[in-house]
Amino acid sequence: MKKKSIIFLILAAVSFSGINAQRIKDVAYISGYGSEQIIGYGLVVGLAGSGDSYRSAFTIQSVTSMLKRFGITVPQEDLKTRNVAAVIITAELSTNLKPGAEFDVTVSSLGDAASLQGGTLLMSPLSGINGQVYGFAQGAISVGGYDVNTLTGNRVSKNHSLAGRIPRGGTLREAIGIPANLSQEVIIYLREPDITTSNNITNAINTQIGSEAAKAVDAAEIRVAVPSDKQNNLIAFLAVLENLQVQVDDIAKVVLNERTGTVVAGSNVKIQPVSITHGGLNIQIRSYPIISQPNPFSRGNTTVFNNLVPSVSQDSTNTVAIQGASNVQEVAAALNSLKVSPRDIIAIFQALKEAGALIAELVIM
Questions:
Q1: pTM value > 0.85
Q2: For the residues 286-311, what does the mean pLDDT come to?
Q3: Which of 36, 85, 294, 327 has a 20 to 30 Å separation from 113 between CA atoms?
């Protein structure tokens, strides 16, 4: 049985004035200088028989429509689409991009294709949520994996081959404009809303400008009135703002991903005094084939049946009394003293939260 590797990541505790001081541009973004999600539909060609089957009616319809634009008419029942796959194209556009700029796109299979390996995306329009077309995408797909079916019926695969990337495969045709009133007022949005961080950003900006130009609206929004002497050189003013160092106050959080077995604990996670006992029950069932032969000259048949033999084993249990852990290093040391696997650590964190001993937000993905 294949076991998934499990990772227990500890983010080292840091002092309030050290690494925890971040640039504003790393924890927030300026309104009008964000990003836009765009999406499109297209066809990938050049697949070696790993494309959509006849069951994907939209693929056949798309190929028929494309050929008609080239002046070719083919009955749908005569089309073979195993070298073609219908895909969804997605990308994230920066509002700083200008027409003609290139960007990366992600291509994902929409039908029942087996693999996109070796395929080429035909030119496809990309539009925003408002339906406006911002650009086009085209190019060879890099999937970073493969999926091969042999003549004997065996299947060999590596990674995921139904989605891939086209580096610089998108071309911007129309830029996303910046709000006209940005020269009078700048709005800053925190990526992770926090009241303390919002207040710290406000104080840092006011200290730099020398006035009360910045005001925190809430945990996620800060409004800054642009001084009159800076309105003619807005870019220089924004560059100063986004590079200001601010104290960032993070929420204590533990993230558990049971699918991958990953545990990530923040630097300010704490555990109250608690006693932990953990043990595992292992159950294994083995199957042994038994052959039954009929008596000589009888009319019986040779039969084979499986004999199931269960076995049960109990891991040794460890009890550890934790007198309280004030930082993530102490949390890690306390859990490591139990000598359990990272998979068990996931269960322990869940139990600690239920017991009220984990002073952190528990996020299960």
A1: no
A2: 67
A3: 36
